[in-house]
What does this fold into?
Amino acid sequence: MQIYWTKINEVIEETPEVKTFLLNLPEGFTWEEGAHTHFALEGFNAGDQPNRSLIRHMSISTLPHEHSIGITTRIKEQCSEFKAILRQLDVGSDVAIFKTHSNVPLKREDKNVYLLSSGVGLATFRPLVLDYFKRGDNVGHMHSLNIDSSGSFLFPDTFASSPDKTFTSQFVDNRRDYYAEVQALAADKDGLFYVVGSDEFLLQNIEVLREQGIQPEQIMLDKHENQRAEFLSYDFSM
It folds into this structure.
C-alpha cells in the first residue's frame, strides 16, 4: 500500500459548518470522478498498528485538472477527535492519503443521470457534474436533488441549473418533499440513480426507487461491490 504524504495548501470555509481542505498533488497520484480516499492525520501510523481514530474515509471533491485534492467535510461544534484535530489544521499542515478508488464514476450509457444526496454528499457529486460539463458525451440530462435544511448550500456555482448544459439542480429542506421528488424522478424507468449519504439514507432511497420499479443495476452507491449487493438485496418486508 502506498501512502502519499502531502500538505494542505488552502482551507475554504464553504458554509459555517463545512470546510474544504485543498491538498498539494503528490507526484504520481491520480483519481477519477466519484473517488474516495483514506484521509489520515499526522501520527496515524506512528505505532505498531494504525490509529484508526486519525483516519477517515472521505470523498474527493475535485478533479485532477484542478491541481489540488479537495476534501470537503462537515465539522460541527461537538465533533469527533478526528474532526477536532482537523478543524485546527491550516495551510502547511501534513496529511496522508491512501487506498483511493471510485465506486461511482459517471456512466455514459445515453441515459439520464439523477444525483440523490443529503447535505455534504454533494462533495462526492461535484466531480461528476464537472466531468459532465466538460464532456457531455453519451449522457442525457443530469439532475441533482439534495436535501439540506441548513439553508447554506454547498458549491452554488456548480450546483446551479444550466439549461445550456442540460443540467438541473434542486434543493429541498425536508424528507417528505425529498422523497416525493425521488418518486417523481423514478418515473424515468431507464434513468441511472446515484445515491450518496448515510447507510440509513441509502436504504430509504433504495426502498423508494425499488417500489417505483427501478432495478438494482440502475442504482449506484458509493460502496464496494459486495457492500452494494447487500444494500440492494435488503429485505424491506422485515
